[in-house]
Amino acid sequence: MADALRERTAQLLTDYLEYCAREPGSPARTPSTPEAAVLRYLAAQIRQRHQRFLSAYRGYRGNRVELVARLERDLLSNPQTLSWGHVVALLTFAGTLLERPPPGTYLNLTPGQQQELEWETNVGQDCQHLVALLCNRLTGRHRAWLEAHDGWDGFCLFFSPMLPSSWRRLLVQAFLSCFTVMILIYFWRRLSYRSFLLALFWIIHSGGSQLHEANIMKTFKQSYREAHMMTN
């Protein structure tokens, strides 16, 4: 028997992530479903408002699938706080990782730039892997939540123009928690232990986190131990 929710979720993810991964300058396909059109609109608003932060993840050279999987676990782990805003923030971030550099970036490659070309060729493959990962997570561990909120019909209704103030408030809250998690991941991967602590101190005391300080420290210590083990 066909799984209507899974099929619709896969179509939405394929539509959006392929839209993000298309060649720069190439025309975008028309959204295939109403929810695809809504997602593109919302993601564009997020990218515009948080351009400075998200630009750090364009051209990401690490494991995109692993990073998105980790963010999904951290961001959507609690069914009581899960919201459409969290889902949109996660999908927007996944799409950002797939965005390609401008045309001409790979002309006259030197031997040291071959890795850049390899990254470019992996975009299409990672796009498929991210569709599979996110579809499995959304229609697996989060299926009950999706069905309780009327699936993608509920998604479109929730973000309809009739309720602009409510979805904007919810998105702001979701983006703060989402970006806090991503900032933590970014620093423990890219910077030194001391730099990470300074960044963590700023996040905690700037009021940008929705988590309690003790929980952040617990997550940080565990993440840093894992990172330390992987690099030794």
From TrEMBL:
The keyword Ribonucleoprotein does not apply. The chain crosses the membrane at residues 170-188. GO terms for molecular function: BH domain binding. Pfam families: Bcl-2. Residues 39-152 form the Bcl-2 Bcl-2 homology region 1-3 domain. It is found in: Cytoplasm, Cytoskeleton, Spindle; Endoplasmic reticulum; Mitochondrion; Nucleus membrane. This is Bcl-2-like protein 10. It comes from Panthera pardus. The gene is BCL2L10.
